[in-house]
Design a protein that fits this description.
Two copies of one chain form a homodimer. In chain A, about 30% of the residues lie in helices and about 25% in strands. The first copy, chain A, is of the alpha/beta class. In chain A, strands 6-11-10-7-12 form a five-stranded mixed barrel, surrounded by four helices. In chain A, strands 1-2 form a two-stranded antiparallel sheet. The longest helix of chain A has 28 residues, at about 285-310. Chain A starts with about 30 loop residues before the first strand and ends with a helix. Chains A and B meet through helix 3, strand 8 and helix 5 of A and helix 3, strand 8 and helix 5 of B. Chains A, B: It catalyses: uridine + phosphate = alpha-D-ribose 1-phosphate + uracil.
């Protein structure tokens, strides 16, 4: 194993390769991706994953299974009565499904949970010698000043003080990383929203927090030391900084994808307008239909890209 | 609904009640615990959960199901061929099982994931008017200078700079909370380890990090900018601060349980000695048997307490 770009870098078919930046991987005979329960010593990664071009990730394992089924239908790869096996079925930490060139992976809730998954996913793509990979987080979020059901494509993830950065603690010291995402990819996804014309789609900043209740100024947690007015003032400041939705994974996702040379986007639907409330009181059916919107948008994008590459 | 201690406070049977500190809950007609998919408007919480005295939480939903089955056997409440229903079966965010006075709940990985669960669990216990509740996190961890398989009962959770505190961001401002746990409960659990004499059990400090790879000085992540020597120096500093294991949830668990008046303990097994390596390369069977140790210890404690209360 080698650190840095994969061998294709110097080959004839020079693609954009997932990047690991860890010289210690050189000295390892095998790499156990513990939370996926996958091992380079017992599985041929290039054979299993080498053709992956799109990775879609989301919090809920059920939703990522449903996305795998949906994309199989969209790409004409669906087999009647087929069950898509969970590649990580012997662990309950994450779920992973593969449909042709598309990998669908769950990441749980919050920065630490997605960060473990991304470390192992980036190593997986690297060991498999994948090239030209696009990765999209499909998520749910709280909106600010948007109709519930609006899909937000993230311009840049911001922290709870509205700065576009992700703070990582390494050896007890703070390291600040950029949360820049791929601007062209965001525009292409916005165009897909326009093509579909089924729901509102916008590009805006996304606030990424470490907590769902106090961290997002909710009034309905077990603890709350601030007033409705304090909450509204905080949300208004976020709005002024260009923030239109709030979730819990985008900042570390952007930072790690940038470090690993992956084209990355974050596409989240808003389940409610936080200026009007905190509780998720819409019916199950309404919330479920909202949650399908990022899947529909990104499914359309993948189909469009694959059709374009067939023609060229 | 009222904030503060439950009504029993002024009643004859004055128990120690779970505390919510949120005046806004007063004005809510119903409370939707979204990530549990439970609603006070449609479920009688006191009838369903009012008898809960012990709550055990852990990252993996499978492990918490297996704990429910185990404790049912230990308490003589097992019914042959019985399936324990997942109370949150209509969501895949968390899993919850109830066996007599014991609730077993999963929390996923990392501080944000357990924090969402704890907000909703504390409100659940409050709405159900539970009293005298003891809560224990059963987990896995990396050890420092301990034989793999040692069970660590946490004295105090520490952050990545070895300070016994949890930093919570509220309205964009940092609030520091104490991570003090119940010292008497820790001693009682240590005594249970001595009673059983099946594996090593110690009381020590636990470091709680936001990341599994760079955040815990691992050399096997997708990124690593430090040397083996840097890693060993960092772990040595942790050891000098009394830290004997590292995991990802204990600090917010301690902080939130303290704020809500719950007797709390953290009991984690160490799966490896981090001074000797980073990869979890032990066999599945060995790791599985290690993971059962916190369950066995806490199962023994619960049985002991329930037998003592029957006698008194």
């Amino acid at each position: 194993m080698a650190s840095g770009f994969a061998d294709e870098k110097n080959g004839k078919k020079c693609g954009r390769s997932p990047f690991v930046n860890n010289p210690h991987l050189d000295s390892m005979k095998e790499d156990i991706l513990y939370h996926f329960n996958l091992n380079t010593g017992t599985l041929n990664f290039p054979a299993k994953f080498g053709d992956v071009k799109f990775v879609c990730v989301g919090g809920s394992p059920w939703r990522m299974k449903s996305f795998a089924e949906y994309i199989a239908g969209e790409l004409g790869l669906a087999v009647p009565n087929a069950e898509y096996p969970n590649i990580c079925e012997s662990t309950d930490r994450y779920a992973m499904y593969k449909v042709g060139p598309v990998l669908s992976v769950s990441h749980g809730m919050g920065i630490p949970s997605i960060s473990i998954m991304l470390h192992e996913l980036i190593k997986l793509l690297y060991h498999a010698r994948c090239t030209d990979v696009t990765i999209v987080r499909l998520g749910t979020s709280g909106g600010i000043g948007l109709h519930p059901g609006t899909v937000v494509i993230t311009k840049q993830p911001m922290d709870a003080t509205f700065l576009p950065r992700f703070e990582q603690v390494i050896l007890g010291k703070s390291v600040v990383r950029s949360t820049e995402l791929d601007g062209d990819l965001a525009e292409e996804l916005l165009q897909c929203g326009k093509d579909l014309a089924e729901f509102d789609t916008v590009i805006a900043n996304t606030m990424c927090t470490l907590d769902f209740y106090e961290g997002q100024a909710r009034l309905d947690g077990a603890f709350c030391s601030y007033t409705e007015e304090d909450k509204q003032n905080y949300l208004a400041k976020a709005y002024a900084a260009g923030v239109r939705n709030i979730e819990m994974e985008s900042s570390v996702f952007a930072a790690m994808c940038k470090l690993s040379n992956l084209r990355a986007a974050v596409v989240c639907v808003t389940l409610l307008d936080r200026q009007k409330g905190d509780q998720l009181s819409s019916s199950h059916d309404v919330l479920h239909s909202y949650q399908q919107r990022p899947q529909i948008l990104v499914g359309h994008y993948i189909k469009k890209k694959l059709n374009a590459s067939k023609k060229s």
